[in-house]
Amino acid sequence: MIARLIAVVALGVALAAAPASAQQTAQRYGLPPLWPAPNAGLTEPRGNPQAGLEVVRGIEGLVGGACVNCHGLQGAADGSGAFPRLDGQHAWYLYKQLRDYASGERAHAVMTPIARVLTDRQMQDVAAWYAAQAEIVEGPSGEFDLRVRQLGGSIAATGAPDRGVIACAQCHGMQGEGAGPAIPTLVGQYAPYTALQLHLWKRGERRNGPLGVMAQVAAGMTDEEIEAVAAYYAALAPAPR
């Protein structure tokens, strides 16, 4: 089973520029595709960034819950790691997360009620606004022990095959840039946020990823490796995406 998952993920990454081919590959292995089926209601968002900016600033019904309050106007958040940075993230990924929050597939005490207020168009617009902030380039978001970063880099590059831990680079790219619309960018993401998500995957509290790969990967990681991988990606300087 592990070998089959590795093969599918590797092929999916190789075909990231051709969603239709990736769907055919996944179907060949009897697994769901990384990209949504045409009738799934989750086509590539075509949002309007300027309309998204108005939603980010706050609309009726989002009292105290405007995106800008936690994620900032340009998506860099406040640097604490309590909130993820969204600038330059893939639009489809952001859109899907909002859909998942609204449906309850991804549970969150704050984000779920906010997402349920938004229309589908507003979700697409918000995703488009934050994805459009890709030109913002900042330095590394934290200082980390060299040994910790080396451990994180090792897991990112090669994984731990004996424990079913696939190399992060297979899906998230060599520099954490993400590969395909369903795979998020990790480069420059705040370490506390990345680590928290890995712990949620490991505990089975987050389950909205493609092919169930993240749950399997996180389950095989030690707490030390989780913190190290998060530190490694946080210390990479974001580049134009």
From TrEMBL:
It comes from the Bacteria. InterPro entries: Cyt_c-like_dom (IPR009056), Cytochrome_c4-like (IPR024167), Cytochrome_c_Oxidase_Subunit (IPR050597). Keywords: Electron transport, Heme, Iron, Metal-binding, Periplasm, Signal, Transport. Residues 47-134, 154-237 form the Cytochrome c domain. It is found in: Periplasm. Residues 1-22 form the signal peptide. This is C-type cytochrome. It comes from Falsiroseomonas tokyonensis. The lineage of its organism: Bacteria, Pseudomonadati, Pseudomonadota, Alphaproteobacteria, Acetobacterales.
